[in-house]
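Sample entry (219 residues):
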Amino acid sequence: MAPSKTPKSTSRPKKEKVFHPDSRKAGQLSRVQLRKAKLADAASKRTKKHSAQADVYGFFYHAIPPEGTLSLEELHSIISNVWLTRHDDELKQERAARRKGRPKSTKELKLEEIKLRESEQYRTGMDVPDLTHEATVKLFRKWDQTEVAYIQLLRFIRISSVDPTSAVISKQGEHHSLKESVPPQAIDEAMVTDRDDTLLIEPPSRFASTMMMMDGPLP
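Predicted structure, serialized as tokens:
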């Protein structure tokens, strides 16, 4: 007797519902998908921004001296001799590699734009953590180098290449110890503002690898 054959399954995979592009359901799905895409994009940008901020504030953290604080002169030196010149070697290489009569590469243009923009920010005034202030430095030493919100506790000062002998408090800092502390004599408190365009700097050249991580690879 021949074995009985197992009947073949006649079930078919369910087809995905297709809605007419002008239908109300299609419009609802489109709006939901658009919202999800926007939220995902915003979350990605927020994560990247916080990560970049943590890297940049890390430069200040490593710029803190083993003991005491920095002088205003030392803070300016870090900016002018390290921050503003960190792309100089790459620029020289790009210019040397460019043949005579050829246009500048995308990388060279980007490096020049960064250098010009940051030099102008330094000239007009840039906000940095107040590493000349003992209470601020004491707080900064406790930072875990990842939590960006912690930086809001610190006091910031605005310094400029136009007047390297003076600084103004741009952010008092949210920690109670800073609100009770007395500003250094170098600070002209009459010029305190609430400007929030903080520009960050890195410490001396021994932190070159960290500088490259912050800026990321250039095309």
